[in-house]
Amino acid sequence: MKLFWKYRVPILLATIFLLGTVIRFAGLGSNPIGLVADEAENGYDAYSLIKTGKDQWGAPWPVTSLRGFGDYRLPAYTYLSIPSVAIFGLTPFAVRFPSALFGSLSIIAIFLLAKELFKGRTDLALLSAFFLAISPWHIGLSRVAIEQAVSVCVITTGLLTLLIGSRRPQWIVVSGIVFGLSLFVYRPNIVLVPFLTVSIVLLYRKSFYPFWKYLAAGCISLLFVSSPILFSLDTSAFQARVNQTNITNDKGIIDLVNEKRGACLRVLPDALCRVVFTKYSAFGGAFVSNYLHHFSPDLLSMTGTETQYSVLPSRGLLYLLDYPLLLLAVVAVVYEWTPAGIFLLGFLLFSAVPDSMTSAGHYGRYFISFPVWPLLLSFGLGWTLSRVTRGKAFLVILIGIYALAASNFLIEYWTFFPYRYSVYTHFGYEALTHDIVRSVGKYDRIILSSRANDSKQYIYYLFYTAYDPAAFQSGVGVEKVQEPNSWVRVRKIGHIEFLPILPPYPDISREHNLLIGDPSEFTAKDLHISEQVVIPVEFTVKDKAGNILFEGVDSGKL
To answer: How far apart are CA 77 and CA 98, in angstroms?
Structure first.
């Protein structure tokens, strides 16, 4: 017992780290079940770079972005996937490996950052690590092959090294390099990094003041490392991604403004109607509504958001108990008014700004806020414990409640989540790809509809067949279409066609085709055939709940 007490901090940290790592790596390739399109795209681009030194579109080792589906993703996650794809092959486990690794390392990073912020208080640092290790939001995003978990780890490390630099100035330069690299990981870091660095330097200005030369060197290192990204901000690729996500391109808001103006014009002068109903006020109202919803208990602790169903079931992004603790943390920040508390509150308030330009709370884009949550929870809990009697007993009970909540979440995540939400993770494409491969050569054309299963379907065929990247890059037998806002749709690979809807049967009646789509697409009305014709289903693909996702129909038997 004496030995444990002497080494309690490293033992407890190692236990928390091991727990968090096991949670993030266990069954990584099988849950979430299936792959979302972005995961398959990251994996195939990594595979293509390994095999040819070029991405799927033939660009050699892109520095600032990969074209992808026309969304021009930043390249860091794909490059981080190369070692695991090279070792484990083109599998879900391989492409998710970097996310789980950096998600696990974030436990150590948040512990060290908390020690810096809270002046060496290991109790608050351990609590921060614990809260991060069991966080549903962090677990969910650490188990999918997208860049958010990597970004949080890098940003946390950048903050850690910058704070260390207030005592050991050489680390300021390291911080500049880390923050510079973060701009290659996740696009919102372009606005987040300046806010964080300026905030830290201003709040701890007395400590940084003697090291102004190192601060200058840190700024130079940040600008130098990130210069390729910064110089790409005025390119068509960057603008395309902005146009794809910004609320100012929301046609629904613009249509509503026009409808209100039209109604106004029936009664009042045109000039007045244009002043009252403007797209700027409409966009401003949408932004404010979006921003406030980011802090709602509904999003954070109750039902969450429908966008999260590929990583989490319907539930809050955090635990139910987190919300009152967060409110206590805000009270503690106002009461204590320390640089650390002010920084965390400012970070939290600012982190909702970028996502508010796109949505009322997206599980991925709002994740830039994540370093704040475990730190605020530990800060609020520590402040509360110092003001209650029997604080240690209260802490033990609270940790027990969190352990129970985490157990409930993990049981749901491993049982109900893959069963009920498999359609959101595009489960079924692996089995569908195998059916398609078995059918090649038996039909004139194989036509896959995306009407009811709208995703970038071609990427699943490339991923699950480990399609030769050189053959795809050559363009032979490949047909692609440029869609609005720079999106790219691949319509054809060899005899396999990926179409928005199935062609009507009369148009293909002289051909022997395999038609694949949602069961609702195989009606006499959709196919333009007699209602007396029995639809000959060759195969079906179902989700884990037994619902049919795809049916394959032989047009020659209609």
So the answer is: 8
**Is the distance from CB of 76 to CB of 181 less than 8 angstroms?**
yes
- pLDDT classification of 451: cutoffs 50, 70, 90: confident
Q: What are phi and psi of 514, to 5 degrees?
A: -105, 115
- Give the H/E segment covering residue 447: strand 445-449
In the three-class reduction of DSSP (H, G, I as helix; E, B as strand; rest coil), residue 388 is classed as coil
pLDDT value at 244 more than 80? no
Residues 24 and 142: their CA atoms lie apart, in Å, by 6
Of 401, 349, 398, the closest CA to residue 372 belongs to 349
Q: Which residues are within 8 A (CB) of 448 and not within 5 positions of it... i.e. 6 or more apart?
A: 432, 436, 457, 496, 497, 498, 499, 516, 517
Say if CB 127 and CB 386 are below 8 A apart: no
Nearest to 322 by CA among 149, 115, 150, 134: 134
Asked if the structure places residue 19 within a domain, the reply is: no
Point out the domain boundary residue: 233, 259, 288.
Answer: 288
Q: Report the C-alpha gap between 125 and 8 in whole angstroms.
A: 13
- How many structural domains are present in the chain? 2
Q: Structure pTM?
A: 0.91
Rounded-to-integer distance, Cα 187 and Cα 147, Å? 10
Q: Tell the residue number behind the tokens 């401003």, with chain if given.
A: 284
- Domain boundary (288, 318, 347) is at 288
Looking at the DSSP assignment, which residues form a beta bridge with residue 54? 60
Residue 490 belongs to what H/E stretch? Answer: strand 488-493
Taking CA 383 as the corner, what is the angle to CA 382 and CA 384, rounded to the nearest 5 degrees? 90
